[in-house]
Design brief:
The protein has 333 residues and is α/β, with parallel strands linked by helices. The chain has 2 domains: 237 residues, Alpha/Beta hydrolase fold, catalytic domain (Rossmann fold), CATH 3.40.50.1820; 85 residues, Rna Polymerase Sigma Factor, Chain: A. Helix content is 35%, strand content 16%. A hairpin with a 5-residue loop joins strand 1 and strand 2.
């Protein structure tokens, strides 16, 4: 029987007064989070999981992830570990533009998000050191930042990410996505009364970019089926997304450049990417170049197979959970 991880998770909030953003703005920021398990007496069993762009900490409660990570005997058995799943600034139930400030909300970056996560951990939960920090996609990118900025964690695992500044194709599609929203007259410089249609177009582009060509080959076989899928994606986006939130989420990667901090990473770090992930193309060799700068770093690219989904393999923990188990065993104190 599948466990209902959603009902088992405990939600909480921590407010940081007068949070200073890297752009110089100040704001009281509320940070939402979700937990499973209990912190032990030594406070040395805490694990933090960082989600991807447009997501929230609740992504880890999906059965395709949670069943393979949190159950009895699994790598992050919640009878042994205290699992913390924060919503990054601008995401989920944490402070974000759609709460009222709209286009006046600070333009946060990945550095701000990492600072918020660290302050939640230390000030909100009273935890000084993590047994493991694991991130997927954007969360994986933030894991590289964490490693250089806060080097005393026991182990790090970055999934579906690269520790290099975003340029080229990766930068181009992100700017295209933002342009699709901003160029819509309905956006009204961020002061709209209803969600502009551009939000739907932008999220349709996002779904295309994170998909696997191999997996999508078995998808829609006709123009009509494709049009139906696009309409469903756009309709869902208009119901569930906010234009300013989406722009701010994708614009946040503008300050991402962890390369200078890679030599400062002291914790053992395992980077796992996927051969069919077209957001992080294997042929460009970025992961191999970068990992050489990490003193205790290891990197692997998992081959494409029946269960992989390109970038979205991050949601298929069955593919990568054994490597997590090996990292935990190797770093056990």
């Amino acid at each position: 029987m599948t466990t209902d991880w959603e009902s088992q998770a405990v939600s909480g909030f921590h407010t940081v007064s007068d949070f200073r953003f890297d752009d110089g703005n100040h704001l009281d920021v509320t940070l939402a989070y979700h937990t499973l398990g209990s912190l032990n007496a030594g406070a040395d069993n805490a694990v933090m999981l960082l989600h991807g762009t447009t997501g929230s900490g609740r992504q880890f409660l999906r059965p395709s992830i949670a069943d393979h990570l949190f159950g009895s005997g699994r790598p992050l058995d919640v009878n042994e570990y205290f699992v913390i799943m924060p919503d990054a600034i601008g995401h989920g139930a944490s402070s974000r533009p759609s709460e009222g400030l709209g286009p006046d909300f600070p333009h946060y970056g990945y550095g701000d998000m990492v600072e918020g996560q660290h302050r939640l951990l230390v000030e909100g939960l009273g935890i000084e050191r993590l047994r493991l920090l694991l991130g997927t996609s954007m969360g994986g990118m933030q894991t590289w930042i964490w490693g250089g900025r806060y080097p005393d964690q026991q182990a790090l695992m970055a999934i579906a990410s690269l520790p290099e500044r975003i340029t080229g194709r990766n930068l181009l599609w992100r700017r295209m996505l933002i342009h699709l929203i901003k160029s819509d007259p309905g956006y009204a410089d961020g002061r709209y009364n209803k969600q502009p249609a551009g939000v739907g177009h932008a999220m349709a582009l996002f779904q295309l970019m994170v998909g696997s060509a191999g997996h999508m080959a078995s998808g829609p076989r006709s123009i009509e089926a494709c049009d139906t899928q696009i309409e469903e994606t756009e309709s869902q986006a208009l119901d569930n997304e906010d234009a300013n939130d989406v722009i701010w989420e994708f614009d946040a990667s503008r300050d991402y450049d962890p390369a200078p901090g890679l030599p400062s990473i002291r914790a053992p770090l395992l980077a796992v990417n996927f051969a069919d992930d077209e957001l992080n193309p294997v042929e460009l060799g970025g992961l191999e170049r970068a990992i050489a700068s990490v003193p205790h770093g290891r990197a692997m690219t998992l081959p494409a197979g029946p269960k992989t989904r390109g970038h979205q393999t991050l949601h298929v923990a069955e593919v990568w959970c054994d490597h997590l188990a090996e990292l935990l065993a190797r770093t056990r104190g």
